[in-house]
Amino acid sequence: MTSNDKILEAVAGYFKREYPGMTAEAVICFMILSDLGDQARMYDIGVGTGMTWEEVYQHMMLMKVGNGAGLVAYQQLADGHYMVILTDKGKAARDALQQSVPAG
């Protein structure tokens, strides 16, 4: 098993345990956001996933504060783009994932 396989297995296991209704696409968006930092434009997450920003918006709704898991919040910017921001709960999930992923 490659290290990428181990990472995917650890991430999938975490989300199945903690957020069983999460889609694979939402998890991928979350992982890209986590890699980019505590916040990123939807467009940038889309570039990392190969999705349009609209697809990112749709998939990350499962993680949004209010009607989702509460892992992220959206902020509309003056230029019309959306920023996705990790909430404290989202940062905790990111940190838990980083600890659960096997090294190297």
Report what the structure shows.
The protein is an alpha+beta fold and 104 residues long. It is built from five helices and three strands. It has helices spanning 3-18, 24-36, 42-49, 53-60, 88-100; strands at 39-41, 72-76, 82-86. It has a three-stranded antiparallel β-sheet. A hairpin with a 5-residue loop joins strand 2 (72-76) and strand 3. Helix 2 (24-36) crosses helix 3 and helix 3 packs across helix 4. The chain is globular and about 40 Å long. The model has no long low-confidence stretch (mean pLDDT 89).
Name the descriptors:
56% helix; alpha+beta; 104 residues; 3 strands; globular
Could you outline the blueprint of secondary structure elements for this entry?
Blueprint: H1 3-18, H2 24-36, E1 39-41, H3 42-49, H4 53-60, E2 72-76, E3 82-86, H5 88-100
Antiparallel strand pairs: 1-3, 2-3
Helix pairs in contact: 2-3, 3-4
